[in-house]
Structure formats: C-alpha cells, structure tokens
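Example 317.
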Amino acid sequence: MALYHRNFLEMKDVTAEELRTILRAAAELKKLQKAGKPHKVLEGKALAMIFEKHSTRTRVSFETGMYQLGGHALYLSSDMIQMGRGESVEDTAKVLSRMVDCILARTNSHATITELAKYSSVPVINALSDFEHPCQILADLLTVQEEKGRLEGLKLAYIGDGNNVANSLLQGCVKAGMRIALACPEGFWPDATILKHAEKEGDVKVVGSPAEAAKDADVLYTDVWVSMGQEEETQKRAKAFAGFQINEELVKKAKPDCIVLHDLPAHYGEEITKDVAYGKQSRIFQQAENRLHGQKGLLALLLNQEFEASMRASVKN
Ligand code: CP
Ligand code: NVA
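Predicted structure in complex with norvaline:
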C-alpha cells in the first residue's frame, strides 16, 4: 500500500517495508540538503501543528522541514486556538482539513489524536502522545543505520521507563529486524498489548536488570524517568528508577563499539550521566539532527504522490 495521504499515529500504522521507505526518503533528502541541492517537493503545501505540550526538537524539525521542502508550517499552541477553550476536536479537524494539507498533534491523551484523525480528511501525524512517539523512532533508526551501516541483526538495549518512546521504539526495532532487550522497573513496563504483539513478531525481551539488557548491545538507549504530565510522580519515580541509568559502567557491559542514544531532553544524573551523554560513544546530537531529516522524509511521502511512488520503487529494487 502507498504511504501517500496516510495517517502516522502509531508504529503499527506502517509495515516493515514502509518503514524502510521512510528511512530511505529521509536519507535521500538529507543527502540533497547537505549537498545544497534543491528538494522543494512540498511547494504550496501547509502543515498545521497543534501542541498541547512543550517541544523543541519536534516543533523545530517539522517547521524547518516544511520550510526546506518548500511548504509552510503553522505552530498552533493549544491555548492559543479555540480547541483550548472548548471547540471540539471534531470541528477543529474538519476546519483545519479544509485549509491545510496535513495536521500534526502533540497531545496529553492519545485519544485526542485518534479523534483528530477520525474527522480529518488530510493525513494526521502523532507528534507525541502519552501512548506513542513514532516520529522519534525515524530519527533513531536513521542514526543507527548511519553509524552501523545496517539495522538487521543489531541489538538495542533500552533502559528505563516503558513509556511512549519505548512503545514506539520496540515496534520500530522489530520492523527493522533488530533485537531489543528492555530493562524497566516493575510496574513501568511497555504497553502489554504492544509488547505481546512485538514478542510474537520479533526478538523482544524484558529482562531483569540494565546490565543484562546491555550485554552485547550495539545500541544503548534511554529516556527520562518523568515524562511530561507526570511531574506529580517525580518522587515515586526517582525511587523506582534508581539504578536504571546509562553510565560508564553500563557502557562497558555493551559491545566496545556500541553507540548511546537518548531522544532528549535529558535529565543528566538521572537516566544518563553527562559523561556518557557527552562521551565518545554518544550520538545524541546526531540523533536530534536526524529528527529534521526523518520528519522531511515522512512529510514528503505523505504529501507528494510522485515522490512517494519513486521512493517506494527504489526500496523494492
Ligand atoms: N525528542 C523530542 O520529541 O523532543 P521535544 O520534546 O523537544 O520535541
Ligand atoms: N517520554 C518523554 C519524551 C519526550 C520527548 C515525554 O513524554 O515527556
């Protein structure tokens, strides 16, 4: 099936081949941008970006990405649009669909994104919800591919909260043919349905300790202990997550050439030490830059039918 005019709400929305197509598009557009070659494949297109939560990378990558592709992005903070004072999600989706070519939303509740998608006649992109963060995974996999030259067969160890990022990451790894071991404290595991499905499809394990997860890993990955909206759980989480940290000792348990990733923002001294985040095995800033290229690949495929057909054909060959 074509990716053109589709939603990207959860990782399960794309097949393994479609994920490869997005990564191919991202890499192609990155090459063109680095070579200073024009790639304005979205001239005249507009993207509405609804944000109920803070963002640096996601906002800037989508906004700059649309600009570089020749289109336009509108930043709509939820407290500045009528939705923030009670206009329904349904009406918002219907109105925006008539004016823009794509809607992106970062919401507190995943249900808001699925409702937007239900009533929108243009593609809707999940820019992070409490359930998934699929756009992040595009940058993560692109970074691993750039660094290791492949994805298939590599082992990624995820240390920490089985949250939105982990839910998307574990599905992305399975689709990419990677192995994933997750070390999450009791009670902070990934979504049970996602986990069960992923365990059936690929090599996914939840293990007892960060050291066990890190053994022979090619990639170490972590995310914050306290996600946006969970601030009142800070104390409880600090206790539960003690020891679930990427530090020098843990890096030594992985393969000597392992790379370290973090979706950012980071809380140094909690889920990762600053030494490691700024150390020679860290690729966190390359990963952050790749948000731009990942987003451009995704947008170009969803919104330009010809570009999508050519990328799809190139992945098949
Ligand atoms: N990783 C990520 O989504 O960052 P922002 O919250 O800054 O967008
Ligand atoms: N899990 C984090 C990711 C931030 C990009 C959060 O939801 O706040």
